[in-house]
TrEMBL record:
GO MF: ATP binding; gluconokinase activity
EC top class, as a word: transferase
Annotated protein name in UniProt: Gluconokinase
EC number, as in UniProt: 2.7.1.12
Pathway per the UniProt entry: Carbohydrate acid metabolism
Length: 191
């Protein structure tokens, strides 16, 4: 596991931030743009950003590099690490953005259980766009060949999860997505 950004300690709690700060969970298959959109969103909001890949146990990274998809067992500790980061941010009263593929309903339910302050953003990507992007992406450990396994595992969020769904096509600009998200009031109490 590489080092994710430290969650702030309670002593660093920003003034005026409530007990349940908004945590934006940016989800979607590999290549959907989670890191791009998540980092930009965090920058715009002035909140910390955590990248899900930094929470993987080393064995998971090695498995993916070797071209093998992760299974539920592999993802258990990874999801627990992400949940712990969310809890530390929440305890500190610090709103934050975290990306995580969270492909299956059970993973999202686990990340959101007893965490009503976690709001789901789903980057709904079409396979052709993603395939082209991943083939062009350089310097990333995740092999494009694993994309089929991502779509095989994908259980897109359903309405009862109240996702903020972003259709991702070849012309969807990360900047525009972030504009919409910020303008939508996604973090307001009843959003
Ligand atoms: N809106 C966009 N328009 C064009 N290219 C994009 C957009 N968003 C992301 N990309 C490009 O697509 C590739 C995948 O994006 P990114 O790494 O953000 O996806 P990801 O979902 O975080 O993937 P992973 O889960 O594998 O880390 C990158 O090369 C990125 O520069
Ligand atoms: O659940 C998974 O299969 C993994 O999280 C993958 O999604 C990769 O970590 C990521 O997409 C590569 O960056």
């Amino acid at each position: 596991m590489t080092t994710p950004p430290p969650a702030p300690s309670p002593a660093e709690k920003p003034a005026g931030v409530g007990a349940r700060p908004c945590i934006l969970l940016v989800t979607g298959v590999s290549g959907s743009g989670k890191s791009t959109v998540g980092a930009l969103l965090a920058q715009r909001l002035g909140w910390p950003y955590a990248e899900a890949d930094d929470f993987h146990p080393d064995a998971n990274l090695a498995k993916m590099v070797a071209g093998q998809p992760l299974d539920d067992g592999d993802r258990r500790q990874w999801l627990a690490n992400i949940a712990a980061w969310i809890d530390a941010s929440s305890a500190a009263g610090q709103p934050a953005v975290v990306s995580c593929s969270a492909l299956k309903r059970a993973y999202r339910d686990g990340l959101r259980a007893n965490r009503p302050n976690v709001r789901l953003i789903y980057l709904d990507a079409d396979e052709q766009t993603i395939r082209a992007r991943l083939s062009a992406r350089r310097g990333h450990f995740f092999p494009a060949a694993l994309l089929d396994s991502q779509f095989a595992d994908l259980q897109p969020p359903t309405e009862d999860e109240h996702p903020y769904r972003v259709p991702m096509t070849a012309d969807t600009l990360a900047d525009e997505i972030v504009d919409h998200l910020v303008a939508s009031g996604i973090c307001e109490e009843n959003a």
